[in-house]
Amino acid sequence: MTETMRRNRLLQMGSLMLVLGAGLVWKSRYLPLSPFLAKYGGDALWALAIFLGAGLCFPRASTCRVALIALGFAWGIEFSQLYHAPWLDQIRSTLPGRLVLGSTFNAPDLLAYVVGIVLGTGAEFLWRRRR
Asked: What is the rounded distance in angstroms from the CA atom of residue 13 to the CA atom of residue 25?
């Protein structure tokens, strides 16, 4: 589990773009999703994107290390929503700010992030095993 790997940056970037696109479609009104799936599925996709981004930034880190970095980042963003300063709320009032930083702390989001990161971790383990 602590074994390092070398990620293919082109594949990592392509996967990240695919997940970001899926997340934008997911959060749009084009998919007839239940409110539960729309909310928490989007959160899981966001965390998966963070996992892929962390893998892109740290291409030789172990999968577990990348997962922990992604989880720390995702949870850090969620807990930062408990802090409200005018300048930060102004950033959060924009669409990019809301997509990246969120706006309101919601404890169940923490579990959705775990689900997204576990999916990424599992996919990476399967990919490595297949190779």
From this structure: 18
What gap in Å lies between CA 3 and CA 60, rounded to an integer?
10
Enter the tokens of residue 107.
């404890």
Higher per-residue pLDDT: 21 or 27: 21
C-alpha count within 13 angstroms, C-beta hemisphere, residue 118: 6
The pLDDT, as a whole number, for residue 4 is 59
Q: For residue 89, what is the enclosing H or E element?
A: helix 86-92
- First and final C-alpha spacing in the chain: 16
CB atoms within 10 A of CB 12: 18
What is the rounded distance in angstroms from the CA atom of residue 123 to the CA atom of residue 11?
13
| Residue whose entry in the numeric block shows the structure tokens 């928490």 | 40
Tokens at 92, concatenated: 């959060």
Structure tokens at 38: 């729309």
The pLDDT assigned to 1 comes to 47
